[in-house]
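Can't paste images in this forum, so I'm doing it all in text. The chain is below; anyone willing to post the predicted structure tokens underneath?
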Amino acid sequence: MEYWLPILWFCVIGFGVLMYVLLDGFVLGLGILAPFAEDEKQLDHMMNTAAPIWDGNETWLVLGGAGLLAAFPKAYALILSALYLPVLLMLIALVFRGVAFEFRFKAHRAKRLWGAAFALGSLFAAFAQGLILGAIVEGMPLADGKYAGGAFGWFSPFSMLTGVALVFGYALLGSTWLILKTEGAMQRVARTLARPLVLVVVAFMGLVSAWLPFLDSRLMARWFEDGNFWWLSPIPLLALGNALWLWRATLRSDRDATPFLLTLSFFGLGFAGLVLGIWPYLVPPALTLWQAASPPSSQIFVLAGLVVLLPAILGYTYWSYSVFRGKIAADAGYH
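Text version of the structure:
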């Protein structure tokens, strides 16, 4: 029980984080791509594709954060101590993005201003999330189990790389979402943006993947000792095949859903590669799942609530996306 409970909670938290990245990622991508809209009406069209469902996506972020606090309080304390500046930036940017999303549809004279706020909030939220991811993967200086770095200990070339990479990744998600949900001029713009974004995101994925084993000797050993490379190698090979298929899908005008689905799977493979690369550390290079875990009684207590909460979130998510499935017309309104 003590061995398997942390693994179960790690899977739950990982699932929550991945769902947030996939579902809110394309909405952040719409904001990042907002400056490429040809006019205010086209930006209205972009935002209307996500208007009915965007504000439920943060539920997954709350689930991941609450699960981390309940199941791995040591890791939660370390991450918040080390990364409070990028976490604060992310939260402020998400609030700014949300306010701008709602206010822009009601504004008249300040509509362009709120459009810019939507774009900037999305950009900074995406970059901050990439910073957080890179800092966690790279590892944090610890002394007696406590964070030993300064306020800017998270700042490094690797975290900057992952920050920029996630911005482009979300932009790709946003462009393929528009291919799925729109037609005509908006879809042509989305396809034009998606093609170079595929190449940029694949290049960033390659850089991050190549850099990862060199961050720490234990991560290098994870990939290349004891024959591990052979059973880990299918992940990068699948990601490469996925990228080639995605590139071809963006070139075809008769495939609307395929680019978005392939982008989702590309993100999933990238997430799996990161998790396998740092396993079994929750906070590399020293804190494993079992060292960070709360007592089994605490994990079981919260797990009882999760049994009710998780199906409810999944059910609501499925219902909302199924109700608002299909193409969004250019003249569709949001009130």
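The CA atoms of residues 191 and 252 lie 9 Å apart. The first strand starts at residue 142 and ends at 143.
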